[in-house]
Amino acid sequence: MGVADLSVSLDGRTVLITGSTTGMGQDIARTFARSGAKVAIHGLGEQEAIAHFVNELSELSGHKTFHFDHDLSDGRQGGVLVQAAIARLGDVDILINNAGVQFVSGVETFPTEQWDRLLAVNLGAAFHAIKAVFPGMKRKGWGRIINTASTLALAGEVGKTAYVAAKHGILGLTRTVALEGAELGITCNAICPGWVYTPLAAAQVEAKAAALGLSLEQTTKEHFLSEMPTKRFVDPFEVASAMLFLCTENARSITGIALPVDGGISA
User: Fold this and answer.
1) Has residue 2 got a pLDDT over 70?
2) Active site residues
3) Range of the domain at 26
4) What is the Cα–Cα distance from 142 to 89, expressed in whole angstroms?
5) How far apart are CA 173 and CA 210, in angstroms?
6) pLDDT score recorded for residue 171
């Protein structure tokens, strides 16, 4: 894995990153910690590992890092999470809605409870978190909201009814919030990654390989990277670097976009 090499200082800014105790979220947290921001991470996991990660981020940023473990399968907890972060760190300057879950099944057999869970985590929690950070950003006249979408926010895929619906919804949410924040110094953008090799993606590769009776290598090559012109997974630090740029003053006129970081899929 690479390391983001951007000379960006966000010292004094507070960033809350949902879904940041594993996978790509950890790279995002590290990238913002290196910029000097005060970081609040969120997610579930093994407590000792999370404590170690919190200490790592504190050393990188020079500020105390806080961890929150709100269960976003109740989407309203997105707002509760923000309020808890504000109570510990003050107003949230940068909100990154990165938490995401997946479930794959045909629409005819798609479990209702999985539909509800995916819509809550992938879309509902983002709405409630944005609603909660907006007043503070408006008061300060500055804010950055970044939503992790997907190339599936721009297209469909068999078996991913809830995920695709939620990610399409994220783009609508992003564009509307961007318009509402345009005169307030608040930008809202979405990042649309291609295949990033995270635990979520690894689970899908393993499930596909088992279903097809193929090796992981063959499954990856033929069924995941075949559509990516670069023929490699996107590195998480590439996504994190794009997010970091969108939080700079150089990006203050960039709002309401869906930025592909997808190895050329959208081309």
Assistant:
1) no
2) 163
3) 14-194+234-258
4) 17
5) 36
6) 98
Alpha helices (H) along 213-250 = 216-223, 236-246
265 domain residue, yes or no:
no
CA–CA dist 83, 267 (Å, integer): 40
pTM: 0.91
Based on the number of CB atoms within 10 Å of its own CB, is 181 exposed (0-12), middle (13-18) or buried (19 or more)? buried
Interval 190-209: pLDDT, tens = 999 988 887 777 787 888 88
Give, as one character, the DSSP assignment of residue 251. G
Same domain membership, residue 88 and residue 69? yes
On whether both 240 and 210 belong to a single domain, the answer is no
Q: Specify which residues 189 forms β-bridges with.
A: 146
Q: What is the pLDDT of the chain when averaged over all its residues?
A: 93
End-to-end CA distance of the chain: 25
Pairing between strand 14-17 and 94-97?
A: parallel
Is residue 153 domain-resident? yes
Give the type of residue at 71.
D
Write out the two tokens for 102: 């997946």
Which tokens is 20 given?
Answer: 């940041």
pLDDT at 33 (0 to 100)? 97
DSSP secondary structure letter of residue 151: G
